[in-house]
Specification:
Elements lengths: L1 H18 L2 H16 L5 H10 L11 H4 L8
Helix pairs in contact: 2-3
Amino acid sequence: MKIFLQICILCFSTVLLTEANPIGVCIRNCAQCKKMFGPYFEGQLCADACVKFKGKMIPDCEDITSIAPFLSKFE
């Protein structure tokens, strides 16, 4: 029973660490903004910025200042 409990705690803490990864959160937000804005949003550029800055800047699709560098005119 003790080993089972330790395994459960280990699995749960691994899930929390994965979800809290700032680069992962940043990239998921880029994907969400790409879905919202379609061809007007440069998703690849956003994801590249996530990796370059190690998730320190996280885009918020509802905050124009955080996504302005990734918006483009669709022609």
